[in-house]
Design a protein that fits this description.
single chain; 417 residues; mainly alpha; two-stranded antiparallel sheet; 14 helices; transmembrane helix; transport; EmrE-like; chloroplast
Length: 417
Amino acid sequence: MQSTAFSFSPSVSLPKLRRPSNPTAYGRRFDPICISSSLKSSDHANSSNVAVSASLPRRSWSLGSSSSSSFKLRPWSPLPERAGYADANRFELRATSVPESAGESARSDSIFKTLELGALFGLWYLFNIYFNIYNKQVLKVFPYPVTVTLAQFAVGTVLVLFMWGFNLYKRPKLSGSQLASIVPLAVVHTLGNLFTNMSLGKVAVSFTHTVKAMEPFFSVVLSAMFLGEFPTPWVVASLVPIVGGVALASATEASFNWAGFWSAMASNLTNQSRNVLSKKVMVKKEESMDNITLFSIITVMSFFLLSPVTIFMEGVKFTPSFVTSAGLNVKQVYIRSLIAALCFHAYQQVSYMILQRVSPVTHSVGNCVKRVVVIVSSVLFFKTPVSPINSIGTGVALAGVFLYSRVKRIKPKPKAA
């Protein structure tokens, strides 16, 4: 049989193929789709005779038919891609790695905030301990609680004016309606601190704070009377150990007297009245202020409210001549009074700073722990005699306070219609 040969184009000699030194110089090897897309429409011909555009180098095919039916195909040399074509049609997946420094920064920021919060709680407890110790030392030798309370408000007022004057804290702009709303809060705030100092002057620090553990009881009663907020059964149940523990501690307290007991109870009443009033007499939302600013304003108001009352009830008793005539060390009394006043204002400020960072429930639990720390530290410092039954009563009352702070957030289920 005769062999038949078909020739598409004149045969040309092909140079020996060499692997390019730069693999990316020519890009990809032969791709018929790529070739067809690079041809112009005018370069297409009928299926029998195909003419490739002159812009591309002409290639030759040799297709033979013989008795051995051998089929030979010459290899194609790689075609150079048009400039910019590979970049335009290449699809690449790139994985961007997140730098480890981002995660480390977040973790370090979280650790810093935790340490900062722990430091604030430590300062809160420390300032409370020093306030109660130095305040008790002053009241033991200088039995004028109204004058001592006024001195504490005076130091607080100086600190507030100093912060406002040097722009350490923004000075508020108050309207007449805001002042009218804050005055009742300042009144009960003044009475609450006055009754606390009266109780500290009559009984032991540990007993005053044990009685003040009954604050949740007054909060529940006043909220139900004036706000219509009735407690859940869980809250009522948590009040039982509080009342029972305080009663047991009072019955076995070595320093018990009715003046100190009722002063502490009056302090509970006025302090919780302040909380109820702050909800009842609400300032407009667009005119609201933060707690630190509100406390600063109340401190200044309390000083001016208590000044005439102090002169009327006790006269001017804090002069060096009077303290000396009472046989006291003027320098010692003044320094202890100053430290107590500074610690009083500092622990109030830190308490509000903590409240801005945590939930009210967490703050309430922290306040319960603070009371435990103050009671234990005062017993150790003043060597207060404590009987086993008294310790049990105090422990039960504080456990009830802790339970109250936990169940307070349990909301009653809505009634089905």
